[in-house]
Amino acid sequence: MMSNRVAHRLKGNQGFTLIELMIVVAIIGILAAIAIPNFMTYQAKARQSEAKIGLGGIYTTATAFFAENGTYVAAGDALGYRPSGTTRYDLYYGGVGVANRITRTGGAVAPCNVDLSATTGTGVPTATATAFTSGAIGNADGDTTCDEWGINDIKTLSNNRNDVAL
Hints:
rod-shaped; five-stranded antiparallel sheet; 17% strand; alpha+beta
């Protein structure tokens, strides 16, 4: 008799039902639907740090150039700044033409392989004897819009066009 009870008890614990498994799958799906877009946004925001670092490097280099030469006027490569590695952003100093693009490896891909537009904030990159603005353009999240950043001679950093949806 005892062995029948043990056998019946073991037979009753055969695992999860299909409904229980479907509930777990549904919960995982809901969590993924919430988490994945947030993760993608955080990744894109992290990519934006490349523009901030590049513009910070331009600011430092332009300030040193001004201290040595008494002017901010220089073509892109004449400034002496060049980012290392493959970059996602194109950097401009003193203007928006090809001569004012800082030589890089890689760089912005379509649709951002165009010159910076006149936007708010620091605006179009320019350089005069006493002031400068510099810009960066790239695609932080792989969509059809561009991300534009700018910095000026008083170290005002601005995100002129934000490519990262919040």
